[in-house]
Design a protein that fits this description.
One of its GO terms (molecular function) is flavin adenine dinucleotide binding. With 341 residues, the chain is α/β, with parallel strands linked by helices. 26% of the residues lie in helices and 25% in strands. Strands 9-8-7-10-6-1-4-5-11 form a 9-stranded mixed beta sheet, with helices on both faces. It has a 5-stranded parallel beta sheet with strand order 13-12-14-15-16. The chain has a two-stranded antiparallel ribbon with strand order 2-3. The protein is elongated, with a radius of gyration of 22 Å. It binds flavin-adenine dinucleotide. The site of flavin-adenine dinucleotide (FAD) has 28 residues, from helix 7, helix 8, strand 15 and helix 10.
């Protein structure tokens, strides 16, 4: 009862959450942009049907990132906190988490959500441990405020889980939720600077190597040409890049774990249970057998094409279209034909 009165008397400057509310950990990428997965996370957050605050961490340009988020007022965003400090370079979880913990202590969110990206997957389990609650990972559906769906056994079974924790700390599978669309709502979300003086003597940002490419990131690509062990070498992966480059800005290259482990390509191209989860319009699996751990990462693709010399390869059971034959014959031919189009 006393808590209720306290809440009523307090002005909106400090907003203790007498009511359930959600915090979305928004991700800043490429010097100020909002990460696409944050937009999917906003959709998941809106399904909880309660007020939403967002928080953005960054070494610079958090104002710009906040301005982008303000365009999504349909999603009931009340406040956007920005925490800017040179110490957030590289967005290390050791630097970010203590500030997030303070924010939680002040505002008592009932739900804290982030996208299932390397960023949130590093931070939110750490936060959950500090709050002494379980970390709920990679949800694909919000049933209600306490219940969610997530995939287990490499996507072969769906788990319905119920959490009784007071605070639910959740990562959201981006491909399972529509991206939020910009629009209206009832007034712009307020932007508030957090006094961010992070202390982090546990880790240090050294450097980040970014491969400059015209090709989209895997989760954002509309078309993916994925290669497997059958490609046999790093040089042969060029066959896939040649194909992808026929669809500038739309297509990119992915790989099976066998191809990554063999060193044919960088490991951030890996698709599957222990790699990226993708759902492009078109997925072309080339010399990939179709192990369940691979399927787990691409089965929601809209159209799946398989090229494999073994007509009994399991990938054909998944595929909408199949080409049985030697990829080293088929790919150059396909590239030539597409060039003529
Ligand atoms: P293979 O299974 O060796 O298949 C190669 C295919 O190429 C075969 O079907 C063959 O018929 C075909 N082929 C050969 N030559 C040609 C040719 N000239 N032309 C056309 N076709 C040809 N795997 C992932 O991909 N992603 C993951 O995230 C992942 N996570 C895993 C997690 C765990 C815990 C475990 C145990 C495994 C995981 N794996 C993962 C590995 C997975 O089980 C498979 O080993 C792997 O996906 C196989 O890769 P592949 O299809 O490229 O190779």
């Amino acid at each position: 009862h006393s808590r209720h009165i306290l809440c009523r008397l307090t002005t909106s400057a400090v907003r203790p959450h007498c009511f359930a509310s959600t915090l979305v950990l928004a991700e800043q990428i490429d010097g100020g942009k909002i990460a696409p997965v944050t937009l999917n996370t906003l959709t998941a957050a809106s399904q909880l049907k309660q007020d939403v605050d967002c928080v953005i961490f960054g070494a610079e340009k958090t104002n710009e990132t906040a301005a982008q988020l303000q365009k999504y007022n349909n999603f009931n965003i009340k406040k956007i906190f920005i925490a800017e400090n040179a110490a957030y370079k590289g967005l290390l979880s050791e630097a970010v988490t203590p500030v997030l913990l303070d924010l939680q202590k002040k505002n008592n969110y009932t739900h804290i959500l982030g996208g299932s990206s390397t960023f949130s997957k590093g931070i939110l389990p750490r936060l959950a441990a500090l709050l002494d609650v379980q970390s709920i990972s990679d949800i694909t559906k919000v049933i209600d405020k306490d219940q969610y769906l997530r995939l287990i056994y490499a996507g072969n079974a769906i788990l319905k889980l119920k959490s009784n924790d007071q605070v639910k700390v959740i990562t959201v599978r981006g491909t399972a939720f529509e991206a939020a669309k910009e629009g209206g709502g009832s007034g712009q979300a307020q932007v508030e600077k957090l006094d961010a003086s992070p202390t982090n003597d546990l880790s240090e940002f050294v450097s980040r190597e970014v491969q400059q490419s015209e090709r989209p990131e895997l989760p954002a690509a509309r078309i993916i040409f994925a290669g497997g062990r059958a490609l046999k070498s790093k040089e042969n992966f060029k066959l896939l890049y040649d194909l992808a480059d026929l669809f500038p800005g739309q297509a990119t290259v992915g790989a099976s774990r066998a191809a990554v482990d063999a060193g044919y390509c960088a490991n951030d191209l890996q698709i599957g249970q222990t790699g990226k989860i993708v759902a492009p319009d078109l997925y072309v699996a080339i010399g990939i057998s179709g192990a369940i751990q691979h399927i787990a990462g691409m089965k929601d693709s809209k159209v799946i094409v398989a090229i494999n010399k073994d007509g009994d390869a399991p990938i054909f059971a998944m595929a909408d279209y199949g080409l049985t034959g030697d990829l080293f014959k088929i790919l150059p031919e396909l590239t030539e034909k597409l060039k003529q189009k």
